[in-house]
Amino acid sequence: MRQVLLLNATYEPLTTLALHRAVILVLREKAEVVHRDGRGAVLRSATRTLDVPSVIRLRRYVRIPYRSRIPLTRAALMRRDDFRCAYCGQRAETIDHVIPRSKGGPHTWENCVASCMPCNHSKADRLLEELGWTLRVAPVVPHGVHWRLIGAQFDGDPQWAPYLTESAA
């Protein structure tokens, strides 16, 4: 599905959203197109023609509440670990608790990793020391103002780059 980068009125990146939702915001005049699709694609209706957007900007400023800790979600965890198993490096499909919950392990960023099914089943509710396994990368809390855009610099349109740099924040 085609994604569009949504900027606040101050050009601060907020999130990515589906093309359909972006077009609705533009048609309702709640947002304006900052960059068009690089391929020159156009949407047509009986009465209007609209360039497919790649980046849109809200016309009004939206205040984003400050969060001291980023919420742990499956999607964010997979993004943090780049959809790779923390044990073997294969494509990850599940979440594993490094210290199993059955042994008192918390459900936190520092204790959760992405895992492939075979590793998750092999590990079961055992500790890494029991298996002689090690983590490829230590799990940490993602940080940064634009955590909602984890991976956007790799998945998105090249036109997004100027808005995703640290200096633009």
From TrEMBL:
Pfam families: HNH (PF01844). GO terms for molecular function: endonuclease activity. InterPro entries: HNH, HNH_nuc, NA-targeting_endonuclease. Keywords: Endonuclease, Hydrolase, Nuclease. Residues 72-121 form the HNH nuclease domain. The keyword Plastid does not apply. This is HNH endonuclease.
